[in-house]
Amino acid sequence: MEVIRNFADRAPMDLDAMARALGVEVRRGQNLAANVSGKIERRGAGFVATINAAHSAKRQRSTLAHELAHRIFHSDLIGDGISDDGLYRSSVSDDIERQANAFAAGRLVPARLVRKLYREGMKDTPSIAERFDVSDDAARVRLRELFG
Ligand SMILES: [Zn+2]
């Protein structure tokens, strides 16, 4: 968890640096099926996360954060690989996927930081999305989670 704390509360957060710190090589997959967001697999002593390069840059960030969550919390479940579809569903349980989504949201749009910006007047979805380099949808969901 120490590794994760080093990346707390930065906007936008440096996912590639976090991947390196976790021993995850990030590949942009050119040939993934359209309904695959990304996957993570063991490779030797480390891991490889493949992100669907056909998706938008912001979507790719969400996918990478999600795959890194699998590396952090579910490395014992990765086995031959976890492959996530467009809704971040996979062969592992929905609870596992929810945990990965929650982690991704919390890292991409950290609560402490977004609360501070909100108090300072940044309350609209497009500004939050821009500041944290996430999709409007991701920003909207996070604002709803934090502020109702
Ligand atoms: Zn997943």
From TrEMBL:
InterPro entries membership: IrrE_HExxH, Rad_response_metalloprotease
UniProt name for this protein: ImmA/IrrE family metallo-endopeptidase
Originating organism: Sediminicoccus rosea
IrrE N-terminal-like domain boundaries: 21-143
Phylogenetic lineage: Bacteria, Pseudomonadati, Pseudomonadota, Alphaproteobacteria, Acetobacterales
Pfam families: Peptidase_M78
